[in-house]
Write a structure and sequence with these properties.
Largest interface: A-B, 75 and 75 residues
EC number (chains A, B): 4.2.3.1
Cofactor (chains A, B): pyridoxal 5'-phosphate
GO molecular function, one term (chains A, B): threonine deaminase activity
Strand order of the largest sheet of chain A: 4-5-13-10-11-12
Pfam family, one (chains A, B): PALP
Oligomer: homodimer
Helix content of chain A: 25-40%
Structural class of chain A: alpha/beta
Number of strands of chain A: 14
Order of helices and strands of chain A: EEEHEHEHEHEHEHEHHEHEHHEHHEHEH
Protein name (chains A, B): Threonine synthase
CATH architecture of the largest domain in chain A: 3-Layer(aba) Sandwich
Shape of chain A: globular
Radius of gyration of chain A: 22 Å
Chain lengths: 428, 428
C-alpha cells in the first residue's frame, strides 16, 4: 500500500509510538494544511476543521474477521493503538444489520436493511465516537472526559469514563428532563447543570476546553478522533453484507459528521481493496423543525445558515451544524439528496418501524425512516436498489414523543366473557 | 452420541419432521412420564411441569462458532428446527460478557464477569425465551403470540411478533405505568388493559389459553419451549470464556426458570464434550420484598409458600414461583445458596454497577449484584473463584427506582468563573 502522504508529521512529545495506530497527522478539510496528531481541532492557518489522515498498511478481511466483536475489529482503520482492545472501554459496535423484509414490502422497495445502533451499550451510535475519543484522550494524557449534551452523548461519555476509570464531566441545561439527567448521573459522572439553554452550555464548554489543561471535550478539542468512530458504521454495513457496498444509504443528520464519515468509511474500504469499487448514493435526513442543511441544499448554497431548532427530534436539533458544507458536498457528489419530514411524520414512522420490524427507535430513527419513505415517493431513492438506513438510537429515551399516539386497544374487567366479547368484535 | 431416551414419542399430526430440531419429547419433571412434543405444559399423569427432552447428535465447537451471532448458533441444543435462522425473529443473544475488573476490585474478588443481557433487542433476557416460544408456536400452527406481563415480557412478545408478522396480544393491569404501556403498544400489539391486579391478569390468561384454539401464551402453554431459551445464557458464558465453565454464577430469580436452565445448559455442554467437566456453584438472588424461595431455603423446606410481593424489583416480583422447588434443588445440589437484599441495597447496587463498569441495570441487576456482595461478605461465594453474574435487563426501564438517588453535583450560571469556583472546591 502506498502512503497517502508525501511527508509524515511527527507526533507531539510525550506521546508513545503507535498511539494513534496508522494515523499519521491531522489535515485541514478547508485548506489541506497538515498538523501533528494532538488535541487540535482547528487549522492553525485558516481555522478550518481538522480530520485524521492515515498511511494504511495492507489490511485483510480475515484479519478483521478474526478480531473482537466490536468496533475494535477495525482498529487498523481508526486513530487508535494496535493494543486498543486491552484497554477498558464499553466495546461498542458490531450491532445488528436487520434484513427488513416487512418494512421493504410496506415501502415497496426490493431490499432494505436497518443498521440498528440501539444495540450499543448505552443504546445510541454515540458509544462508537466516544470510544475513539476516549482512546485519544488517554494517549494524549488528558484526564477528564467531558461534553456538553442534552442526551445520548452524555449517557455515552458517562458510561465510557466509568468503565475506563477516568473522571468525566457532563454539562447539561438545568431544565433538562429529569429522566435524561438520571440516565447519565447514575454513572456517577460529575454532572453540572447550567442555568441556560444548550447554546449557553456549549459556549461554556468551548471556553473551558480553551482554558483548562487536561480536558478532553469529546466533541470539541478531540473531535477529529471522535468523528472517526462513525466510519465503523460503514465498515460494519459492508462486512455484514458480505464485504460489499449497498447502493444507497440514508443517514440522520445533526452536525452532519456521521454522514460524512460513512462516506469516508466506504471510500477507505474501496482504497484498501476490501470491497469492490462501486458508487454509493448518500442521503441525509433532518427534521423540518431543524433543517438548516436541507434549506441550503434546496437553495443551491454551499454554506449553511444557522436556524433555531424546534422539533421533537432533539438528538438531531443542532441549528448550526459543524459539518454542514461537507454534507452538502457528499450528497451532491454521490448523487444523493438531503430532505426533511415534520414531527407528525416522525412519530408515525417510529410506529411504522416498530410495527414492521420490532425495532423501537428514538425520534431520530423516525426522521430517517420518514425521509426514506419521502425520497422513495419523490423518486430520489431507487426502489430496486439495495438500501440501508441508520437507526441511531433507542425509543426508550424518547417515550414522550409517542406517548399520546399509542396505547391499549381496550380496557376490560378480568372476566373471560369480557375478553371474548372484545375479541370477537375486534377480529370480526 | 448415544440417545438419552429408550423410546421416542412421535410428534403430533400436522407437525413437520424436524420442527423441534433434536428435541424428541416432553418429560414430566415430577414423575418422569413422557409426552409428545405439542402445546402441553402439565403432565397428563400428575400435573407436574413438563420440560423438553433431546437426542443430541455430535455437536462441535467449530459448528457453533461458524453459526449466526445470536442464540441460533446453539440451534442444535434448542427445540427449534435446523433452518430457524431463515425465519424472521429479533435474533437475540450473543450479548457481551463484560470482564468487570473495576467491580472485582471494588468487591475484593479475583475474577468477575457480568453477562449483560441489556444488549438484547428489547433490552432484557426475555428476548431469548420469547424467540424460542415463537418458533414453537409457528411449528405447532398457533397463530397468536400472547402473554400476561407487567414489563419486559410484554416488550419482548410485542417486538418478536411484529418482526415475525404474526398477531400478538399482551395483557397488562390497567394501572400499569404509562411508560411501560407505551414501550409495548408502540409495536402495534393488541394491548389489553385489565381492570385488576397482575394475579387477575394471569388467571384470565390461563383461562384463555385453556379455552381458545391457536393461542400461544409464551409463559403458559408453550412454556416448556420458552424456558429452554434461557439455556443460551449458559452456552454463551461458556463459549465467551473460551469454552470453559466458571466456578460460580449468581442468577436473578423470579419464577426460577432462568436459574434452573442455566444449570441445565452447563450440564448439556459437559455431556456433549464441549467443555471440560467441572462443578459450577449456582446462586440465586431475590429482593427481600419478594423472596419466597429464600424463605423456603432458609427453613430447609422443599416446597415454596407463596408471598405477596412488595419490592421495587418488579421484574422479579413473582410471589408464587413456578420453578421454586427446582431452584432449591439446584442451589443445594451444586453447593450454592439463594439470598435476598432489601430495596435500598438494590438501588445502591444499580449505582455501583453503573459507576464501576458503565452498565446501567434495571432493578433486577441491582438485586443480583447486591446478593453477590452479600454472599461474598458472608463467605458463601469464594473471592478467589471465577464468578459470573447475570444482568437481565436495562436501567432505562426502571428509571424511577434511582430517580431520587442520583442527580447533578451542582447547578451554576453559564459563566467560566462560576465553573472554576465549583471545580476548584470540588477537586480540592
Amino acid at each position: 500500500m502506498t502512503a497517502v502522504l508525501d511527508t509524515q508529521v511527527p507526533p507531539p512529545a510525550g506521546v508513545r509510538d503507535g498511539a494513534f495506530g496508522n494515523a499519521t497527522h491531522l489535515v485541514c478539510r478547508a485548506c489541506g494544511e497538515k498538523s501533528p496528531l494532538g488535541p487540535f481541532y482547528a487549522c492553525m492557518e485558516c481555522f478550518g476543521p481538522l480530520e485524521v489522515g492515515y498511511d494504511f498498511p495492507r489490511v485483510t478481511r480475515e484479519q478483521i474477521e478474526s478480531g473482537p466483536k466490536s468496533i475494535w475489529r477495525y482498529a487498523p482503520l481508526l486513530p487508535v493503538p494496535a493494543d486498543i482492545a486491552t484497554f477498558r472501554s464499553t466495546d461498542p459496535g458490531f450491532t445488528r444489520l436487520v434484513d427488513a423484509g416487512n418494512l421493504a414490502a410496506d415501502l415497496g422497495v426490493r431490499k432494505l436493511w436497518v443498521k440498528d445502533d440501539s444495540g450499543n451499550p448505552t443504546h445510541s451510535f454515540k458509544d462508537r465516537v466516544v470510544a475513539v475519543a476516549l482512546s485519544a484522550a488517554r494517549e494524549l494524557g488528558l484526564n477528564v472526559l467531558a461534553c456538553p449534551s442534552t442526551g445520548n452523548l452524555a449517557n455515552a461519555v458517562a458510561a465510557a469514563a466509568a468503565r475506563a476509570g477516568i473522571r468525566s464531566v457532563v454539562m447539561v441545561p438545568s431544565n433538562l428532563e429529569q429522566q435524561k439527567i438520571i440516565a447519565s448521573a447514575v454513572y456517577d459522572t460529575t454532572l453540572i447543570a447550567i442555568d441556560g439553554n444548550y447554546d449557553d452550555v456549549n459556549k461554556l464548554a468551548s471556553e473551558i476546553a480553551g482554558e483548562e489543561e487536561g480536558w478532553a471535550f469529546v466533541n470539541v478539542n478531540v473531535r477529529p478522533y471522535y468523528a472517526e468512530g462513525s466510519k465503523t458504521l460503514a465498515f460494519e454495513i459492508a462486512e455484514q453484507l458480505g464485504w460489499r457496498l449497498p447502493d444507497q444509504v440514508v443517514v440522520p443528520v445533526a452536525s452532519g459528521s456521521q454522514l460524512t464519515k460513512i462516506d469516508k468509511g466506504f471510500s477507505e474500504l474501496i482504497k484498501l481493496g476490501l470491497v469492490e469499487d462501486k458508487p454509493v448514493k448518500i442521503f441525509g435526513a433532518q427534521a423540518t423543525g431543524c433543517s438548516p442543511i436541507v434549506q441550503a441544499y434546496e437553495a443551491g448554497h454551499d454554506v449553511v445558515a444557522p436556524v433555531r431548532p424546534n422539533t421533537i427530534a432533539k438528538s438531531l436539533a443542532i441549528g448550526n451544524p459543524a459539518d454542514g458544507p461537507y454534507v452538502l458536498d457528499v450528497v451532491r457528489r454521490t448523487g444523493g439528496r438531503i430532505a426533511d419530514v415534520d414531527d407528525e411524520t416522525v412519530v408515525r414512522n417510529i410506529v411504522r418501524l416498530a410495527r414492521n420490524e420490532g425495532i423501537f427507535a428514538e425520534t431520530a430513527g423516525g426522521v430517517t425512516l420518514g425521509v426514506t419513505a419521502r425520497l422513495l415517493a419523490e423518486g430520489d431513492l431507487d426502489p430496486d436498489a439495495e438500501t440501508v438506513f441508520i437507526n441511531s438510537g433507542d425509543g426508550l429515551k424518547t417515550l414522550d414523543a409517542v406517548a399520546s399516539h399509542v396505547g391499549p386497544k381496550t380496557t376490560i374487567p378480568p372476566r373471560y366473557e369480557a375478553f371474548t366479547d372484545f375479541w370477537r368484535s375486534y377480529t370480526a
